[in-house]
């Protein structure tokens, strides 16, 4: 695969985010009742068992998970590149939502106990993933937790209007470790299905204290 130029990266971000902005309402209706309890439990179970944690929902979409974390007594902040999703997430959750492109993050160092990246990081091109993961590592407090859930596979490129990078565990683990994360455990979703019917890879990783 040829290296992506800055113009290529800008196009990837604009086209992918444009897709989500155009389908924001149907996306909300189609995902607001999804059962992601397994991912919530994996993420929160690796964090200190107390209320008031500072959490970043990376790619928060319309705000479903922000509201869940807020209702548990935590202090979640959303991050989203689609202006329409940002508007919806603020309305649905009442939380602060940062309007930022994944490829142009501006996060304070050591400001979050945990980062929840549910079905979001796979939009980052593999060329840029080491840098983005290191930026997330820097935004976590020592011992902080990164949860990520991405589609499995061995391909990268366009799926209609969305850009995606699909990896299997062995490759994704290398990216995490090189960025300074220590994977705690991983699993495949949906639960209870044969492996070939589990298209999602979920990983819980820790920033070394």
What does this structure look like?
The chain is an alpha/beta fold and 209 residues long. The protein has a single domain (6-207), classed as Vaccinia Virus protein VP39 (Rossmann fold), CATH 3.40.50.150. It has helices spanning 6-22, 24-31, 37-45, 64-71, 83-93, 129-139, 169-178; strands at 54-58, 75-80, 97-99, 112-118, 140-151, 155-159, 162-166, 181-189, 200-207. It has a 7-stranded mixed β-sheet with strand order 3-2-1-4-5-9-8, sandwiched between helices. Helix 5 links the parallel strand 2 and strand 3 (97-99). The protein starts with 5 loop residues before the first helix and ends with a strand.
Q: What's the mean pLDDT score?
A: 96
Write out the strand line-up for the largest beta sheet, numbering strands in chain order. Answer: 3-2-1-4-5-9-8
Helix content: 25-40%
Please identify the top-level CATH class.
Alpha Beta
Spell the H/E element sequence: HHHEHEHEEHEEEHEE
CATH architecture: 3-Layer(aba) Sandwich
**Amount of beta strand:** 25-35%
Question: How many helices?
Answer: 7
Number-wise, the strands total: 9
Instruction: Give the overall silhouette.
Output: globular
Please sum up the structure shown.
With 209 residues, this protein is α/β, with parallel strands linked by helices. The chain contains seven helices and nine strands; from the N terminus they run H-H-H-E-H-E-H-E-E-H-E-E-E-H-E-E. The mean pLDDT is 96.
């Amino acid at each position: 695969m040829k290296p992506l130029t800055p113009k290529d990266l800008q196009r990837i971000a604009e086209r992918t985010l444009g897709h989500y902005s155009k389908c924001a309402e149907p996306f909300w209706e189609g995902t607001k009742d999804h059962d992601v309890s397994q991912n919530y439990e994996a993420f929160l179970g690796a964090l200190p068992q107390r209320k008031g944690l500072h959490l970043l929902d990376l790619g928060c979409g319309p705000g479903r998970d922000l509201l869940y974390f807020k209702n548990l007594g935590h202090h979640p902040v959303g991050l989203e590149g689609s202006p329409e999703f940002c508007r919806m997430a603020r309305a649905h959750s009442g939380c602060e939502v940062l309007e930022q492109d994944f490829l142009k993050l501006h996060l304070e160092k050591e400001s979050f106990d945990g980062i929840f990246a549910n079905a979001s990081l796979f939009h980052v091109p593999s060329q840029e993933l080491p840098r983005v993961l290191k930026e997330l590592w820097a935004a976590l407090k020592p011992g902080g937790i990164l949860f990520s859930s991405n589609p499995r596979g061995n391909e990268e490129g366009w799926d209609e209007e969305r850009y995606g990078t699909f990896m299997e565990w062995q490759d994704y683990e290398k990216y995490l470790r090189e960025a300074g994360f220590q994977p705690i455990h991983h699993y495949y979703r949906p639960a209870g299905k044969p492996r070939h019917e589990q298209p999602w890879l979920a990983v819980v990783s820790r920033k070394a204290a």
